[in-house]
Give the backbone structure.
Amino acid sequence: MIKKLLLVLPFLLMFVGALMLFERPAYAYADPGSGLLAIQAAGSALVAAGWYLRRKIYALFHRGTAETQSEESQEAPDSQDPPRP
Amino acid sequence: MNDPVEPPSNLRTIPTRKSELVLTFRDPAGQLRLTDFCALRQVWPAAVEETEAFLASPLRKALERSGDLVASRVASAGDHGIVAPGELWLEHPRLDPISYPWEWTTAQWRAAARLTLRIASRAIAAGWTLKDATPLNILFSGSQPVWVDVLSFERRDPRSTVWLAYGQFVRTFLLPLVAERYLGWPLQATLLVRDGYEPAQIYKALPFWRRAHPDLLDVVTLATLAERRRAQPGKSGKPRSVADPELAEHILQKRIARLGKQIRRVAVPQGRSQWSEYAQSASHYQPADIERKKKFVKDVLERVRPARVLDIGANTGTYSLLAAEAGAEVVALDSDAAALEALWRAAKQQKQPITALVANIARPTPAAGWRNREHLSLLDRLSVKFDLVLMLAVIHHLILREQLPLEHIAELAAGLTRRWLVLEWVPPSDPMYQEWLRGRDHLYGHLNEDDLQRAFAPHFDCAAREELENGRILLLLERIPEQGSAAAQAGHPLSEVSRP
């Protein structure tokens, strides 16, 4: 389990780093705040990490099921998308 | 922003309460004027293209169809003299009276917050976003919250993961509810703040252990800590984008869902209060008297057939509901939020057109905002708008608790009703009167029905009277038209009310 987590962690860190690079200014009518804007950025990173890694996380916790399923459905291995986290 | 008001340049000749001249002044996209019959919104040239795109969008049609968004139609110069060729003006129905968030119960705040999040979510899914998210964009049409600011919508950058109005939603919706729930700050106190509470204000006031609460950790604690860090020079917050539009929408929808969860947990229903159980626990009223009182009010409603009724001291709404069932639009006032919340829930459940306002008629909501002209006072919004005013079991509150002379109460009532007033006289022998007399017999112990009639005589004639077994007296009073007053003029809505 820990090995798997260590496998996932670099991807997560790389993604959060990539998120920081893609910045662009925007103009608000309502004051977006500063702390609350930072909270949005942090929240975005977390949700996005979950989005990208959902298959890996799903596989991490459903390893047995996934293997059984893939053995049972060799012909269409991608036909069942794992649910979003 | 709904209904902020600003008088025209000639302040000396235009009284504040001339609602025809109300307009917004903060929104860079347009301004709003209120007439007696509609709201007129002028869209500034820079915002015309965006507004027309929104008006033509399926989103606008869907929101209007569901009742979440106020109806709009493009106003033409032929309809309104103020509209000049080449300008874009929108006409909306008036939702009257204006109710401000500082007059809502917790349940109304919750309903308004959920409406905002529902609209934000649907807008995001349709490629739009809300550029502001304050309770001032919402009015209540009866018990239903309605979004009234059509200029709040703008097309969103499909890659942006930031909802720019998130901060405003947190400050103006979530944190006032947090402050009410955990700090006991009344929602009425939001009258004093234009843009809600800052996270740091709440952080400072919260007990140490409460700062780690799962519902408050991000919007209060982490936001405050991040604010302190970003207060350093050169640390400016910039919204972020991602390459995948599907991911951007997913992030935004998750954010809306999180806020919805926080609102549900924080905005808990009002508990019981002294007055919320009053109708069930009042020992000075026997069932027979309650039935006679209901019959008296029903008979008046049948006789007068009012289009608009004001129920002062409405409590849990027994008589507001009677009036609504008789076909009237009702405005129900009470200073007890728990009682009024029960009223609002009943009105919502029964789909009755009752607007509930937490307000004390003896200490009415003041005008507020920029130059005291941004938000109207309660009396400016209510004066001379009702065919019938109900003042049931409220006069002893005004005499004994508010220490108001009868003449002043009569003058107030005459300023609210166009014609009819139902008043319940509570004599000094009544247990409730005695409870509040508290040794002041020499001041109030001698008052009787004659004193009441004498005080009201300059403004009203007595049209019907009924004395109950418990000594209380029900009066139907008819306002004496003043010479040259609007009520006396032919064609005034008053003339449409059938005489008994």
Remarks:
- Chain B touches chain A through 48 residues (CB under 8 Å).
- The CA atoms of residues 253 and 455 of chain B lie 60 Å apart.
